[in-house]
Amino acid sequence: MTGISGIDNLIWVFNYFILFFAFLVMLSYLILAYLSARGLRQYLKRNRFVNYKALLALENVPSVSLIAPAYNEGKTIVENVKSLLAINYNNFDVIVVNDGSKDNSMEVLIQSFQLVRTEMTYVPYIPTKNVRGIYTSANPAFSKLYVVDKENGGKADALNTGMNISQKPYLVCIDVDCIMDKDVLLKLAKPYMEASDSKVIATGGVVRIANSCVIKAGKLIDVKAPDNLIARVQVIEYLRAFILGRMAWSRLDGLLIISGAFGMFDREIAMKCGGYSTATVGEDMELIVRMRRYMIDQGEPYTVQYIPDPLCWTEAPESFKILGKQRSRWMRGTIETLWTHRKMMFNPKYKILGLLSFPYWFLFEYLAPLVEITGLLITFILIYLSIVNWQYFVLFIALVYVFAVFFSMIALYAEESTFKRYHRIRDLLKLAFVALLEPIFFHPFTVYASLKGNWEKLRGNKGWGEMTRKGFDKKTA
Amino acid sequence: MLEFSQINMSEFDLKFTLILIILVFSICSIIFFLATLTKRIFKIKEDKKKKLFQIEIDKVLFGIMFDQDGGKHFTVHGKSTLFKKLMIKSLIGHHDNFSGISAVKMEEFFVKSGLVNYSLSKIRSRSWVDVVEGMRDLSSLNYKKAYLEILKISFEGNDIVHQEKLLARIRLNGLQELHEFKSSKVYFNDWTQSNIIFVVKKHRVPNDDLLPDLLYATNKSISLLAIRLIDYYQDLSQMEALREFKIITKNKKLQAEIDFLLKVKTLPQV
Amino acid sequence: MKKILLVEDDEMLLKSLSYYLQMNQFEVLPYDNGADALALLHQEIEEIDLIITDLNLPFAGGQQIIESVRKEKKSKLPVIVLTASGIESTELEMLELGADEFISKPFSPAILLKRIQKLIGN
């Protein structure tokens, strides 16, 4: 201690502030985990008897358009579109939007699916970039397929184009390279069929990580823990977020985002809201917030439903470079969504959404990395001034580390008690091992990437961060 | 001014508390990890057991279905619950896949082997999960004697039990079970309706002459169901009644459904 | 012994039908998905005497299997399609695609056997 009472008090206050913040974070995590676990248990107990195939008995099931924007995916696009067409459902079409790819995507599609240009006129209810042509297949086996060729305008613009073309009341927007559960539409559609008094505007499913999994002809055959460490950490990360987080928010009716990769929603409401925003890099989370806000502003009763089953498997970044781009983009998306809808903050009109979810999102998604960095900086200053209390320092670090590991272990246990997708002991050991490493090599990087997102937002960088994907075809060969 | 840092007691407490919390978290992490592994090991063992059971079950059931006198003296007496569960699942599966003598043989075996007693004990259980499972199994294997007992089952406010009960009644006693809902306030949402139609198709529930009566139910969700069922059976006189109903009814939703179904049906001929 | 390629994703039906057909002196090649069945067809279509396939299959449906068979050298290879009950419109399409027989589930194994015998004899 310095002996100077002012500074000592300041340090004391700082210690306790950090401690308080840390405990707040931990406590909220634990409460959410508890609520999620309870919700999941109940869901699974009820869902034991659900026979999704029964849905196929009804001809008039909610009809759905799958919208899949594609940019330079010629390598894998045919296989991926085929697997989309093979989804188990009565009443759907697939709209592939070629967003001005520079590769041979369009040629490959035309050739493989015997596409012919239609006379359909394109009506841009939501303004988009120019559409060069709408194609359908000459082969009746692919009658459900539409391919739209348009000028490049980014993901949101491509999704809006698909939305304009669709004639179905419900939409599912996905990345073409997602591996979908074959019952995905049955599961997403069920809540719409059960609705009675309040309108279901969106249902969202869980995304899992497909790296190192065995994939055959666009279908998941065997689930394995990724060999790549960076991808493997993300498995733990996704388990925590989806199993221990989302379910609780859904129970509290405060689910701000339908998972980043996909969900099913009401086309009419989405169009009334103006479709996807091209002004943000987080268009999927922004739209769902806007839709909910719209319903509340209109005073219409509505619900958003969350389906905890893993429905969509996606390839996670395997290098820090691409992960960094993804995470800084997520951070920019968060900032933009929070800023656009700042009026919801602490606004009792929006109930749990405004009073709890929004502040929580602000505090833990946006502010937490900044607090961490501030804490780190102050610690450096204290070290420089050589007034750091090393005992406390070590204890704090140890506490945070142990808690992070503890929480990951709960997530792993929750997965094993619910969906049980990792069948081998070996995979569980691999996941547990990476949970020990995560706080050391992975977490600091995500904090760095969040900071970078903040910085880029300040600098006004709007780039989408190109995701170079390895493509699944390597694994299927 | 009070010197906070000089309160040594508090400092000691804080340090001690921190160490304690760290220890607790560490131990809990290990416990959760071990619990995960234990669960997995148990599951792997169970899967192995299931595989062995399944081989035994297949042998018995194939013998009964396809051979003249296979599996006559088989009884589940003394078999484990897991075995019984698996066997019922297989029985229902084969029963769903095959019609004719093979299906009847499955029904007879369900009773003779003693499996029926296991299912009967389930519908008498106090857990709704067991009751639902029992009703499903008994009715899927067409055990008519359970009908009256199923009729008496009541779980206040549990929609899953109610739905399964109705499905079981339809399997065992046909579509006449729907008539009591004609003027009730029970709303049959699309999910329930798809389950009913699924059961009707899968279980080959016979057509009911009184189906057109349901069209005029005050419970509009029953009318909707009736429209869908008439469309499924495609009985000429009932289809005529359906067209007539379309002219009479003022309900837009019902008209739209009739239009949708009739259009779907005529499209391939165009 | 005649060889039957059996493609069906319901594991229980695949097993029981295989057993039943073997019992009736057929050699059965059981597959639970369309992709593997197609791969086999490309290689050894000459060896196969009859195909029994489900309509809704993982990876490649019954339609694709028929289409691909009709393009092969042995294009007259008889195909029996198993359909779930109540898909009338698909049946119409299937007739056009060129399946030889339809059997809608649930079915009696004896009837399936008669159809097989009608198409390829014992």
From TrEMBL, chain A:
<dbReference type="InterPro" id="IPR029044">
    <property type="entry name" value="Nucleotide-diphossugar_trans"/>
</dbReference>
<feature type="transmembrane region" description="Helical">
    <location>
        <begin position="390"/>
        <end position="410"/>
    </location>
</feature>
<keyword id="KW-0812">Transmembrane</keyword>
<protein>
    <recommendedName>
        <fullName>Glycosyltransferase 2-like domain-containing protein</fullName>
    </recommendedName>
</protein>
<dbReference type="GO" id="GO:0016757">
    <property type="term" value="F:glycosyltransferase activity"/>
</dbReference>
<feature type="transmembrane region" description="Helical">
    <location>
        <begin position="12"/>
        <end position="37"/>
    </location>
</feature>
<keyword id="KW-1133">Transmembrane helix</keyword>
<feature type="transmembrane region" description="Helical">
    <location>
        <begin position="431"/>
        <end position="451"/>
    </location>
</feature>
<keyword id="KW-0472">Membrane</keyword>
<feature type="transmembrane region" description="Helical">
    <location>
        <begin position="352"/>
        <end position="384"/>
    </location>
</feature>
<keyword id="KW-0328">Glycosyltransferase</keyword>
<comment type="similarity">
    <text>Belongs to the glycosyltransferase 2 family.</text>
</comment>
<dbReference type="InterPro" id="IPR001173">
    <property type="entry name" value="Glyco_trans_2-like"/>
</dbReference>
<keyword id="KW-0808">Transferase</keyword>
<dbReference type="Pfam" id="PF00535">
    <property type="entry name" value="Glycos_transf_2"/>
</dbReference>
UniProtKB/TrEMBL annotation, chain B:
<protein>
    <submittedName>
        <fullName>Uncharacterized protein</fullName>
    </submittedName>
</protein>
<keyword id="KW-0472">Membrane</keyword>
<keyword id="KW-1133">Transmembrane helix</keyword>
<keyword id="KW-0812">Transmembrane</keyword>
<feature type="transmembrane region" description="Helical">
    <location>
        <begin position="16"/>
        <end position="42"/>
    </location>
</feature>
Automatic annotation (TrEMBL), chain C:
<protein>
    <submittedName>
        <fullName>Response regulator receiver domain-containing protein</fullName>
    </submittedName>
</protein>
<feature type="modified residue" description="4-aspartylphosphate">
    <location>
        <position position="54"/>
    </location>
</feature>
<dbReference type="GO" id="GO:0000160">
    <property type="term" value="P:phosphorelay signal transduction system"/>
</dbReference>
<keyword id="KW-0597">Phosphoprotein</keyword>
<dbReference type="InterPro" id="IPR011006">
    <property type="entry name" value="CheY-like_superfamily"/>
</dbReference>
<feature type="domain" description="Response regulatory">
    <location>
        <begin position="3"/>
        <end position="120"/>
    </location>
</feature>
<dbReference type="InterPro" id="IPR001789">
    <property type="entry name" value="Sig_transdc_resp-reg_receiver"/>
</dbReference>
<dbReference type="Pfam" id="PF00072">
    <property type="entry name" value="Response_reg"/>
</dbReference>
<dbReference type="InterPro" id="IPR050595">
    <property type="entry name" value="Bact_response_regulator"/>
</dbReference>
